[in-house]
Amino acid sequence: MDRRTFLTASLAAAAGWAWPQAYCLAAPCRAFEPTLFVVDSALPGSRSYMTSQCGEGARYLAAGSDMGVLWYERLCDWRGPVKGVLRPSDCFVLRNLSLADGRAWRSMAAGADVGESSASARVLAFEIGPMLRASRL
Asked: What pTM does this model have?
């Protein structure tokens, strides 16, 4: 292989690798996505948390019995932030799935005393950060 062929082939390979990343960074910003609230009707604090935090244009989604199904059917493609109040077991599933997807996760004990840790809480308030533009192609 001569030098010209080698340079042409390596430039084509580099452009093929860099094009998706450059396209993703050069894409215009998407419109603002409102906050999606996950509401568990069995928990009295869930609906009241949503109404106290609800801004204009916020949407809500009823939490079912299986958080994995909820994540893959509704939440993993939602680009905006997701908030809610759920049981610790449901928050554990959502935490692992959101962190595996590269999204930020925050949680705290909801309706608890100041000294109570989230490990002993019966209900957790959570927030999953918005999806970054470059996190998925």
From this structure: 0.64
Q: Which amino acid is at 2?
A: D
Joined tokens for residue 102: 């590269």
46 Cβ contact partners less than 8 Å away, ≥ 6 residues apart: 39, 40, 63, 84, 85, 86, 123
The per-residue pLDDT for range 22-37, each reduced to its tens digit, is 544 544 455 567 888 8
Domain boundaries, the chain: 36-135
Q: Are 39 and 62 in contact (CB under 8 A)?
A: yes
What token pair was written down for 99?
């962190």
Closest to 128 (Cα-Cα) out of 84, 87, 88, 90:
84
97-126 confidence digits (pLDDT tens): 999 998 999 998 876 555 555 555 688 889
Q: Alpha-carbon distance 94 to 100, whole Å?
A: 10
Residue 46's closest CA among 37, 55, 36?
37
Q: Which residue stretches of 2-115 are H helix?
A: 3-26, 44-53, 67-70, 88-100
CA separation, residue 3 to residues 8, 9, 12, 27, 40 (Å):
9, 10, 14, 35, 65
